[in-house]
Write a structure and sequence with these properties.
The chain is mainly α. It has 13 helices and no strands. It is globular and about 50 Å long.
Amino acid sequence: MSTTVFFAMLLAALLHATWNAWVKSRPDPYGGMVALGIGAGWPCVFLLAWSGMPETVPWGWIALTIGLSIPAQALLGSAYREGDFVVAYPIVRGLLPVVIALGSIFLFDEGLSAWGALGVLFVSSGIAVLGLIATRRGGSISLRGLWLAGLSALVTALAVLADSSGARAANAPVAYASLVTIGNSIAMATYQMRRVDLPRVLVDNWPVMVAAPLLSTASYLITIWSLGQARVALVISVRETNILFALAIGALFLRERVDRWHGLAVALVFAGLLLIRG
């Protein structure tokens, strides 16, 4: 992985952690996520108008990416009902780099070096430690929740691989990312319309809907560009290090308690970064 791509993905991870922390700090985090998912489309309308449509539009990959994103979110929501967020989320994010590393071998013929593979495992292990920390503090998840979290990781990984294929086929990062994001916004609005009081949720979370998409769009654009420059598994593994930034934001601004076990998680993820950077 080149230095440019490596630091670009660290910036994407920081932006990702920032908007996640903002949503998490809202009185209604779920409503904040809905508002962000729907609002994410508005910057991309302007970006698409500026960039124009790609010469080759991979509509099949775009549809597959969006089609997989909805069940991935639904499975994650079901996992949350079977266990605590602080346990389920690290399971999903920890499994994701490993599943993508395996999938990219078959889809893109992108094998990893021994050091690269070890780096992916270190990053995943560091994230998984956060789930163990949560269980030590009283968090729990049922056996069904574990299966749902694992299935969510699998479907999310398939969505990422489809996204990677589409981005490479389009060869136009800005236009492609804009099309996917606009499609996701429409799908999110359609999906949530029957589940929440959508007008009220959007009004209550209008700052998130207006401002947070600038951060999420920038993070996604950087990721899509990077997927065309480096191996998918390494790009996604670096993106998942947003957990380091999230931990720092939580400790500094949300007053979340950090102990030596968090230090172990940070050390594992940081070691993984060093191995991936090579």
